[in-house]
Amino acid sequence: MSTPAAPTEQLLADLHQVWRMRAFEEKVRDLRLAGDAVGSIHLGIGQEAIPVGAAELIGPDDAVFATYRGHCWAMACGAAPAALFGEVLGRATGTNGGRGGSAHLSAPAHRFFGENSIVGAGAPIAVGAALAGRFDGSGRVAITVFGDGAMNQGAVHEAMNFAAAMNLPVVFVCENNTWSELTPIDEMVRDAVLYRRAAAYGIPGERIDGNDPAVVRDRLGDAVELAREGGGPTLVEAMTARLVGHYIGDAEQYRRPGELDEARRREPVARLSGQLRAAGVDETVIEGAERDARAEIEQAAAEALAAPLADPATAKDHLYV
After folding, report:
1. Does the reported pTM lie above 0.85?
2. Fold for domain 8-305?
3. Out of 134, 228, 254, 266, which one is annotated catalytic?
4. What gap in Å lies between CA 176 and CA 146, rounded to an integer?
5. Fewer CB in a 10 Å sphere around the end CB: N or C, the chain?
6. For residue range 208-254, what is the model confidence (pLDDT) as tens digits?
7. Would you list the domain boundaries of the chain?
């Protein structure tokens, strides 16, 4: 099924949102390299079109679960950049009061129920949220996001099987950047077209262009609608590319010759900018999307840096009733 060309206004809006996420991730990288942020940090640079395309599909009672590469999904759910920076920087103003850091942040007030550092662990949790929605009358759809490597985790298999057997409203989104951390997925499995696994569970599956927000919005939208109407789960394999290392400091010696250059030609900023130029949009307007997004993100980072550090005395808060 082809996706109709997005109008210029939508392309510009998508470009602005992609730049907001790109600028956020680049600023997080800078803060980590400067020592302001600590710990292992995994960036979604290059993969922004998927959360941008999904953003308007997430209803007020829905629930989103991501991997440790989930900053952009928190933004897509509506979490404020300053609060997200605060969490990454261990500030009291963070979404979790500085307790979660980069890899465990959540923003439940914004329907983002968190990242998880255990590969694929968000899938069974999302299934639980979908099952709860059956009893609480919320009409909730759960969206769980994971990488291609997580498709080989037993917990993901169990989650898909249970969701299929119980006909639960879950959308499984595999952000396939082809790297499974540091190893090409096509060297780990016989069939690297991962959506085909959906047939084994008796559920729909589809591979889509994950670098185009309009395609994501259209195809993922069908999966969310199916779940909301009682049609059960779907597996969506969104093809994308990670333009940076698996973690900050990754030497990326595993990259294949020319792979990164090709990925940069297809990544969301290049894609959207090219579409806007083809539509006759002035270059100053296109550049303005980046300029405005970076200004917002710089201000948010400054606000977080000026906030007080989390108080160690509160470390046990929320642990006990």
Report:
1. yes
2. Rossmann fold (3.40.50)
3. 254
4. 8
5. C
6. 999 999 999 999 999 999 999 999 999 999 999 999 999 999 999 99
7. 8-305
